[in-house]
Amino acid sequence: MDAGTWYKSLPRFTRYWLTATVGLSLLCRFGLLPMEYTYLSRELVLTRLQLWRCITSLFVFPLSGATGFHFLINCYFITQYSARLEKDQYARSPSDYMYLLIITAVLANLGGMLFNVYFLMDMLVVAITYIWCQLNKEVIVSFWFGSRFKAMYLPWVLAGIELVFHGSLASLVGIFNGHVYYFLKFQYPQELGGNAFLETPEFLKRFAPGVSGGISGFGVPPESRAPPPRQSANSAWGRGMALGRN
Q: Where are the residues of the annotated region Disordered (predicted)?
């Protein structure tokens, strides 16, 4: 498969994310876009209202000879785990995946301001990877030097490597952000029987309408463990049958 065919095969929002990240990072690397206008700063955002930094810090990565390999690894994770998540779990509801990216981006900005993280690529990549891994806990993934382990451990391995070699908490914050989304989207409503707080807004559904039909399920949300609602013995409707049960 040539590069053009591979690029076009990426799901829509993963392709947009990768393009923006590579494009803006290269513009900064070659001095066409001043780096000082792109990083996240709590003071500049909150006191001088330089709100564009909340966007540029998501996509710009400070490329240099020392960080180039790290950048490529992040791009690889985007093309692997964001693409899989969008293509398999959200194939019929692209607006839901767009909403996922928006929520994790907002959480990344909050985490970046709290912990003084200037560029948010690591945080966002790990959050998306964490969500995919939670939906595919038992899948065996390959890592460096031929190591293989269950997907549920991958985000923690990434966070540990970044903490040891770079002294950064960004990946740990990314795990927290990913878990916030996973808990509110899947665990709380489906396992605990709580309200669905992360319903996608209608304007996003109109912007990226869903696709009818097809099969989705590479990552399967956890089966609900919430107790069924009790019915009165005098109910005129009878017991009925739960959908999807034999």
A: 219-246
Structure-token match 């107790």, residue found: 227
Instruction: Show me where the domains of the chain are located.
Output: 65-201
The answer for 148, left when phi > 0, alpha when psi is -120 to 50, beta otherwise, is beta
Beta strands, E only, the chain:
140-142, 148-150
**Partners of 140 in the beta sheet?**
150
Spatial distance between the Cα atoms of 58 and 155, rounded to a whole number of angstroms: 19
Please give the Cα distance from 6 to 64 (Å, whole number).
26
**Structure tokens belonging to residue 87:** 């293509």
pLDDT digit string, tens, across residues 189-238: 877 777 788 899 999 999 988 876 444 444 445 554 444 444 433 333 33
What 3-state DSSP class applies to 116? Answer: coil
Single-letter amino acid code for the residue at 226: A
Q: Helix 121-135 and helix 68-77: axis angle, to 10°? A: 30
Give the separation between CA 77 and CA 161, rounded to whole angstroms: 15
Determine phi and psi for 87, rounding to 5 degrees: -75, -35
